[in-house]
Structure formats: structure tokens, C-alpha cells
Amino acid sequence: MTSGSSAPADSVMALPVTQICAGTPWPDIVWIHVHDNEETARQTAVQTLSQIQQGCLLDLRHDGSREISIQNNQANYHFDPNRIFTPRGRQSSLKCRDGNCDVAAKQLSQATKHFLNQYLMHAKLIVAVHNNHPNGLSVHNYKAGGSMAQAMNKIAISPNSDGHDFFYVTTQQAFEFLASRNFNVVLQNNQQVQDDGSLSVWASQQQIDYINVEAGMGHSATQLAMLAAVWSYMQQYYQV
Ligand SMILES: [Zn+2]
Q1: How close is the Cα of 132 to the center of ligand 1, in Å?
Q2: 83, 178, 209, 210: which could join 170 in a potential S-S bond, CB 3.0 to 4.6 Å?
């Protein structure tokens, strides 16, 4: 495994990305971990990559918290890194404490566009890894009548499974593959989903196959099993 950080020299602010690569590159597929406090997701992704020996994880490392805080000569601000990938999302998620907040918005916009162009624009498949808390999101939120129902096109719920462990995908192909393997899966409604700036919204706008592997914090064995299924999916649809 190799890792390295890179920041564009000409940019005032860059997203704090560390790239962790194993074996040979796999340009069609990008792995990404954006919430620095979701340690189980980071560890299981790195472990899976080291077994596959192909591809890279983009790991956003900040100060161990969910949000990224920026302090520079222009402004102090913070934001949820999974709410910045569309203009509308950036506008509503940027929390500017003091300084020149217009400049802050421009910095964030420039840094995000650079990040998307450099790492994600040419991907065919994006694999995101997340963790949630016992009182946090679960697959049941996406059921008809649930708080997230508007974002759901199709849902598969596996009996006797933990609702916190689920896939959230943007393509019918990924939905069918993963649902047939007895996992909880939500297919995003790409027409009706709220544009909150999350990577799933951006990926669907770009027509990129996107799989979020979402598991409860500490559910290492389950998240590894889910990632193994994603590896099977990659072999079936992306390996030449
Ligand atoms: Zn997350």
C-alpha cells in the first residue's frame, strides 16, 4: 500500500485528500472516504483494497471530525464534505463564521471543482464508504412514508439484517446485483432526490455508477462482507 497527499500549488484552499493505493491502478474505479470520524469504513476499505491489490482510496483527512474546518487569511468556515459536490449543496452547507464569506464560497467552489476534475470526473464507478450511529440513518428511513422516502426509487430489505447496514446506489444494475445477494439496498430516485450536494447526487447527474457502502459504526465484519460483494460486482462489470 502506498499513500500520498497532494494539493494544487496555485489554489488558496484544497480539500485535504490523501490517496491510498494498492497494487495496480484502476482508473475506471475510485474509492472514497469523506467523513474523517467514520473509522470502521476507512479501515474496512483499506483492508479490502489490500486484498484486491488494485485501485486507490481517496481519504479526506481533517481533524477526525465529520466536518472540515478551514481557517485562512480570508475567512473561517466549515462544511460537511458530503454536501459540497453541487453548487446548490455548497451554498446551503457552507457555514461561514467570520471574515469574507463571499471569498470563502469561491474558495470552496474552486477547491471542489478541482477535486472533482482531478479525481472523479472520469470514473465509471465510485465506491463511497460511510458509517452511521445507532440513532442515525438506516435503510428503514427510505421506506415509503419514511423521512427519506422521496430519495428512493426502489428498496430491498433483507429480513433479520441490521437496518444500519445498507447499500445506497444510483443504478438499476448495482441495485439488482446487490439485492440478489440478500443485502439491504436503496436505489436512489435520480429524478426526485433533493439536491443536497452529496456525492450520490453529483454522480447521478454525471451518470456515473455510484455505490455507497453504509454500515453501522463498528460493524467491521458486515462492512467487509458488503465490500466483498462490491468486489464481485467490479469483477462482473468492470474488469477487462
Ligand atoms: Zn459518512
Answers
A1: 7
A2: 210
Distance 62 CA to ligand 1 centre (A): 14
Please give the distance, rounded to the nearest whole angstrom, from the Cα atom of residue 13 to the centre of ligand 1. Answer: 22
Output the tens digit of pLDDT for each of the chain's 240 residues: 788 766 554 457 899 999 999 999 899 999 999 999 999 999 999 999 999 999 999 999 999 999 999 999 999 999 999 999 999 999 999 999 999 999 999 999 999 999 999 999 999 999 999 999 999 899 999 999 999 999 999 999 999 899 999 999 999 999 999 999 999 999 999 999 999 999 999 999 999 999 999 999 999 999 999 999 999 999 999 987
Domain ranges, residue 51: 2-237
Ligand 1 centroid–CA 142 distance in Å is 17
Q: What's the rounded Cα separation, in Å, for the pair 222 and 5? A: 29
- Compute, in angstroms, the gap from residue 38 CA to the centroid of ligand 1: 6
- DSSP SS3 for 155: strand
As beta bridge partners, residue 79 has 68
